[in-house]
Amino acid sequence: MRLGLEHFNRGSYGIAQRYFKDAVEKSPKDLTAWMGLAASYDRLRRFDLADQAYAQATKLGGETVQLLNDQGYSYMLRGNLNAARRKFERAYSLDPTNVVVINNLELLNGSRRFIERPPNNQP
Predict the structure, then answer these.
(1) Whole-angstrom distance, CA of residue 123 vs CA of residue 83
(2) Which of 20, 57, 82, 87 could cross-link to 36 by cystine, CB 3.0-4.6 Å?
């Protein structure tokens, strides 16, 4: 776990993924390891595997603010802004003071404004 977190924080997501995978194999009920594994998969753009890790984390810990926020970020990375908004808003409803969730909602709102197109693709 420690090495997974260390490499994740350095931006070495492939190495972090290997350590988190090892951690969940050795301790399959470790919620933090599953969350780290899912986040690593997100950064590696292996969203199919990230979804599986998030599903396992949900089974272990339920829909926590962190899990919903991380899933929202995952959807945002994929470009699925509607699904991202649903996850962020659910996280916000559980903890409206969570700064990370608030910042992600603002980031999402900025992304939405940036990609909005005028009607009929007119300039």
Answers:
(1) 28
(2) 20
**C-alpha–C-alpha distance, residues 68 and 63, integer Å:** 6
With 0-12 / 13-18 / 19 or more C-beta atoms within 10 angstroms meaning exposed / middle / buried, residue 67 is buried
How far apart are the C-alpha atoms of 74 and 38, rounded to whole Å?
9
User: What DSSP assignment string belongs to 30-94?
Assistant: -HHHHHHHHHHHHHTT-HHHHHHHHHHHHHHH-S-HHHHHHHHHHHHHHT-HHHHHHHHHHHHHH
Q: What is the mean pLDDT of residues 102-108?
A: 95
Where residue 121 falls among pLDDT bands split at 50, 70, 90? Answer: low
Q: What distance separates the 2 farthest-apart alpha carbons in the chain?
A: 56
Helix (H, G, I), strand (E, B) or coil at 16: helix
The predicted model scores a pTM of 0.86
